[in-house]
Amino acid sequence: QAQLVESGGGLVQAGGSLRLSCAASGRTFNSYTMGWFRQGPGKEREFVAAITWSGDITYYAESVKGRFTISRDNAKNTVYLQMNSLKPTDTAVYYCAVDSKGAYRNSVRTSSSNEYEYWGQGTQVTVSS
Fold first, then answer.
1. Of 78, 47, 41, which is closest to residue 64 (Cα–Cα)?
2. pLDDT in tens, 4-55
3. Tell me: the pLDDT tens digits for 46-72?
């Protein structure tokens, strides 16, 4: 059964950094756009970043642009999210998912969570002030 497993979350002080990983098992998603989303306390799930299958094209939410970097290693079936200059407002459970309609695309098709599948269990990121 295909699944995604996120890891790398934790507690960090404001201004610190974390690197999240999203590993695929059961099948590969190397030909698909992958996305990171987050859900803070009492908030709806929101888009963070996405990367096309080749890794050449990335797209970020305005709130994280310049601070977060999404990347992927298709040989390891893994997608990463490097988070720098973290703020307390970044506190959330972070999820990765697959745009299953976004195979071999040269642009990010959508940032809507409704269009992504194979959600992992998430990893908690807590940023203290």
1. 47
2. 999 999 999 999 999 999 999 899 999 999 999 999 999 999 999 999 999 9
3. 999 999 999 999 999 999 999 999 999
Cβ proximity of 10 and 20 under 8 Å: no
User: Quick one: 82 exposed, middle or buried, by C-beta within 10 A (0-12, 13-18, 19+)?
Assistant: middle
Distance CA 29, CA 25 (A): 9
Dist. CA 44–CA 66, nearest whole Å: 23
Give the N- to C-terminal CA distance of the chain in Å, as an integer.
40
Q: Which helix (H) or strand (E) holds 13?
A: strand 10-13
Rounded CA-CA distance 75/3 in Å is 17
